[in-house]
TrEMBL record, chain A:
This is Serine-protein kinase RsbW. CDD domains: HATPase_RsbW-like. It is an enzyme of class 2 (transferase). It comes from Ruegeria denitrificans. Residues 17-139 form the Histidine kinase/HSP90-like ATPase domain. Keywords: Kinase, Serine/threonine-protein kinase, Transferase. SUPFAM superfamilies: ATPase domain of HSP90 chaperone/DNA topoisomerase II/histidine kinase. The keyword Mitochondrion does not apply. One of its GO terms (molecular function) is protein serine/threonine kinase activity. Its EC number is 2.7.11.1. It holds the Pfam family HATPase_c_2. The keyword Ribosomal protein does not apply.
UniProtKB/TrEMBL annotation, chain B:
NCBIfam families: ant_ant_sig. PROSITE patterns: STAS. Belongs to the anti-sigma-factor antagonist family. This is Anti-sigma factor antagonist. Residues 21-110 form the STAS domain. InterPro entries: Anti-sigma_ant, STAS_dom, STAS_dom_sf. One of its GO terms (molecular function) is anti-sigma factor antagonist activity. Pfam families: STAS. It comes from Ruegeria denitrificans. Gene3D superfamilies: STAS domain. The lineage of its organism: Bacteria, Pseudomonadati, Pseudomonadota, Alphaproteobacteria, Rhodobacterales.
Amino acid sequence: MHNGKCLDLSFAATESEASAGIAQLSQRLSAQGLPTHKAGDVKIALAEAINNVIEHAYADITPAKVKVRCRLHQNWLEILISDTGNPLPGFRVPDGIPASLGSTIDELPEGGFGWFLIHELTSDIRYERSNGCNRLSLRFDFPKPS
Amino acid sequence: MALTSSTTDATQIIKVHSDRIDAAMAIQFKEDMRNQAEGGATRVVLDLTSVEFIDSSGLGAIVAAMKQLGNDRRLDLAGLHPFVEKVFRLTRMDTVFKLYPTLDDALSATAD
């Protein structure tokens, strides 16, 4: 048994650094053997989780780093995202109820889909706050067809 | 973000020259869309053929771009990569926009 392939990346919590970081991680995961049909799901969940860190955890405080650690196993991928920003509200993973589409064009939401997408695209989400650090872990299962 | 625009018949085509529309470019995209679409045709087709990735901020920016057009104009989307289409489907935004697999499909559907 092997312990999975490990991929680490850390970058400043700004939108442009994140954009480049997400693209780089996604490319490296594919090169390491992440199945093509999972690559899109992983990329968007990763993007939404990192955008949340930048927009919320580091809101009103000096942004520090976002650290991402990926462990790619044969049938699953685990991504750990850590930051030193503000904790998630209530110290828990938000429910991820999608924003309502409303009934007119003016009522259409322009946001509020981030956690919904993360819930939809992951197999498991865990959150832990300790020593001033947020640790969000996202798991993606891709069982081989038998 | 680079956008280019052309007009055929009663349709303005705005092409996105970027492989992604994400949080880092959402605000710029909205602004550029406002400038490009200004005074254009009633129907606008956004050509997303080059876009391989979109996140919820990018999705929000496209929604905002549609709102900017006002009630008398409409925004249709063309050339969606399977993954981009999946984001529209998951958020049910595929019920709000008309999505066409290719730009040609969008242009041949002008008669409806």
